[in-house]
Structure formats: C-alpha cells, structure tokens
Design a protein that fits this description.
Bound molecules: zinc ion
Helix content: 55-70%
Strand content: under 5%
Radius of gyration: 24 Å
Order of helices and strands: EEHHHHHHHHHHHH
Number of strands: 2
Largest sheet: 2 strands, antiparallel
Structural class: mainly alpha
C-alpha cells in the first residue's frame, strides 16, 4: 500500500458530469457550483473509507510535511499565503495547530505549559487568591495539602494540554498591539497567532526538549558526571531567542514592516508571552480547581 505516495490515477477530466447534489454540469472531480465531490469507485473501499476517517490524505498529499517545512524555513509564509487565498499546499492552519497539540499531548515528559500546585500557591502574581481558595477547600474536605496536591497535579497535567488553544486566543490582542498602525482583518491575526503557537509547540517545546534529553543521555553515556540540568534562566533566555528568531521575520513578512520595526514588534511579543502564560496558568488553575 503506497501510504506515503500520492496516488497516480486515471480520472477522466474530459467528460461532462452532472452534479448529484445540485444537478449542475461540470468537468473534473468537484462540482463548481456547490463543491460536491464526484464519488469514485475507490472511495467506497473499506481501506479508503478508514483513511478518510483518519484524515490520512493530509499525509498522502504531503500537506503536513509541506506545512512543517514552510513553518520552519519561511516564518509567516503560511499566514501570508492563506490570507491571500493560497490554501491547497497546506494543512488548514487550525488542523496543523491541533496536530502539534496532539504530538505535545503524547510527550508526558514535557511540562512547559503545566504548573504544579506548589507553583500556583507560591510563585504566581495571583498566588494569594489560590492560597485562600485551596486552604478553604482542604479544610472543608478534610484533606491534607499533600493529598490534595496529588489529585490537583494529576488533573492539571491533562487540562494543561487540553486548554492550549486558549494560548492562541490570549496572544491575539498583543499581536494587534504590536501592529497598531496597520489595518489587518481578524482572520489574519488569528492565523498568525496559530502559526506562532504551532511553532512554539513544535520547536522550543517538543523539539528542544528532545534535543536536550538526547544530549544529556549522550553525556551520561560518555560517563561524564552531569545531571542533565541546564540552569533555568539560561534555558529561558535561549528559548526566548529562538522564539524571537521566528517572530521577527514572520512579522516582517506578514505585516510588511521594516526590519527595525519587526524587531521591536518581536521583542514586544516575546515579552508578552510572560503575560500570556500567566493568564493561561490562572485559567488552568480555575479550570482544574473548579472541576475537581
Ligand atoms: Zn453541485
């Protein structure tokens, strides 16, 4: 089964067909009035029925790999193309985001977007509120703090992955701010935000975590005594630079700004990530705490 290769097929593009849905006449695979697809013989085989269900044509058409390659090599290009109506070469930006989210979901080691109860209680600007709520809850339910934090952390881990979409929404006002003088429609902002968060998921989150784990395994394998920890502030700085290196050319491409203005916008947005992640963590606390 040529799962990875595009099918070469004998489809008759010359004959005139009558649409089964709206009865218009047309040539080719889709009705050009209502968009109904011509039913082909192989659509009705079990194999293709299942592949369709899995949306595996995304892979067969190479759309996933094309989206990934374009994302990595040409920041902002997907957003720019999609807003100009070029959509065929890519996965839908929202499906691409959910696929990245899905990959992230299956890496239990990666905790970037999760926050333990300890951090919620003592490290956040809103920790006073968390402490008050949690103290009330555990005394009402006769729980110890350590019992409660076990239940909390387990639920928070799952929620942190399900709520990632909120990150895309929270980032939008800052993109609008970084871009205050340009008139851009909402969908373009939304797609740019999707592209930013998809990048953050794929490169600094999944990619860099795998690379640092690989390096620490290698160093351990060589018998060097190193615990695989990189100091947090260096790590954060390094990740911020990678994200900045993506945001700046993306802003330049999508907004058409000069380099210096793109750099300014990039710095604003990377700094905004701190605010976005804080609001996201507060949402995560509320969603976890009130559904326990
Ligand atoms: Zn039709």
């Amino acid at each position: 089964m040529n799962f990875w290769r595009k099918r070469t097929e004998a489809f008759d593009f010359q004959i005139t067909r009558k649409c089964k849905h709206c009865e218009a006449s047309f040539h080719g695979k889709f009705c050009n009035i209502c968009g109904e697809k011509v039913l082909e013989k192989e659509d009705q085989t079990l194999k293709n029925y299942l592949l369709n269900l899995l949306n595996a044509y995304t892979f067969i058409d190479g759309k996933f790999f094309n989206s990934l390659r374009t994302l990595l090599l040409k920041p902002g290009k997907i957003t720019e193309d999609v807003s100009e109506g070029i959509t065929v070469p890519y996965m839908q930006p929202i499906s691409f985001f959910f696929l990245a989210n899905f990959i992230y979901f299956f890496f239990p080691v990666i905790q970037t977007f999760n926050t333990s109860l300890y951090n919620q209680l003592y490290r956040m600007p809103y920790s006073g509120f968390v402490e008050k709520e949690v103290t009330e809850y555990i005394s009402e339910n006769n729980l110890s703090l350590s019992d409660f934090s076990q239940i909390y952390d387990m639920n928070s881990t799952g929620n942190s992955k399900l709520l990632l979409f909120l990150f895309v929404i929270y980032l939008i006002p800052f993109i609008v701010l970084a871009n205050y003088s340009k008139q851009v429609n909402f969908v373009k902002y939304f797609h740019l935000s999707l592209e930013f968060v998809t990048f953050i998921l794929i490169v600094p989150t999944v990619g860099i975590s795998l690379v640092t784990r690989g390096i620490s395994q290698l160093i351990l394998g060589l018998g060097v005594n190193w615990n695989g920890e990189i100091r947090d502030e260096y790590y954060t700085f390094f990740l911020s630079l990678i994200i900045l290196g993506f945001f700046v050319p993306a802003i330049r491409r999508v907004m058409g700004f000069s380099w210096w203005r793109s750099i300014l916008g990039g710095i604003l947005l990377v700094s905004a990530l701190i605010v976005v992640i804080t609001i996201y963590r507060l949402t995560l606390f509320l969603a976890t705490f009130y559904t326990l």
